[in-house]
Amino acid sequence: MEGIIIKGIGGFYYIETADGIYECKARGIFRKEKITPLAGDRCRIQTMSDFKGNIEEILPRKNSFVRPPVANIDTMIIVFAAASPAPVPELVDKLSVIAMSAGASPAIVINKTDLDKALADDLLKSYEPTGFEIFTVSAKTGEGIDALREYLKGKISVFAGCSGVGKSSVLNCVLPNADLKTGRVSEKIGRGRHTTRDVTLIPTGVGGYIADTPGFSSLEIENIAADELAGYFPEFEPYKYDCRFRGCSHINEPDCCVKNAVAAGKIGLSRYESYKQLYLVLKEIKQWKK
After folding, report:
1. What's the pTM value of the predicted model, to 2 decimals?
2. Which CATH superfamily is domain 226-289 in?
3. Mind listing the pLDDT tens digit for each residue in 71-103?
4. Contacts by 120-125 with C-beta closer than 8 Å and gap 24+?
5. Interatomic CA distance for residues 186 and 195, integer angstroms
6. C-alpha–C-alpha distance, residues 101 and 96, integer Å
7. What is the pLDDT averaged over residues 116-122?
8. What sign has the CA pseudo-torsion 111, 117, 122, 127?
């Protein structure tokens, strides 16, 4: 029987199948081959009585992440807030690169639009050239939630972003029966506390799942070469081949069409600043590895 792992805890894995949810253990061969079953894995199981069984085979993965441990993500929903806490575009852009490099589509959710509508509109404009799906929402008023819910249909999605931006609150709006824990933003430090510890796939009821995870903010991008980074900024695409120099890094070279597009307002300045920061980080990693 085939199914999907919706949760793993204490060596037990809970597999959703057409017949219901089975509690399974993984065969010893997985440990020998250093394969760890992950939430999101599609697998074949040998069933026993009382909805128990054993995982016999992990089917090929589309992608996988280590922290948090989850597999086969179709789209990464990158959530940040218009206010409280203040938006951190650098993290949003780093997460979008991580998503694209893993073959997952990034989607941007700007939450708490009720706190600062003008800033939310400015953030929306800065991300429109990317071509990413963008949603302006308010978990408090319900604005934009229906459109986000429609987008999630039929997909395995993961929510990512800083603590305190309202990931769990948005999830509770999208899945009102999930009853996820929410964290209050500390007024003293302006940041939130993580409220999620284990990865659990929550069925959307319309042919998809949402992975509730501890967050992706600790992920790094060392597996990407600096000269590949521009390929993960889709808004660069119409300009990067017209630069004066082949292999232009879009950092210091003259007659750079990407920099000209930034100056003309065709590429968001904050996006370009994130690109420069990430490029320099990746360049340093390459030199260190030498």
Report:
1. 0.86
2. Probable gtpase engc; domain 3 (1.10.40.50)
3. 999 999 999 999 888 888 999 999 999 999 999
4. 120/82, 123/80, 123/82, 123/87, 123/89, 125/268
5. 13
6. 9
7. 91
8. positive
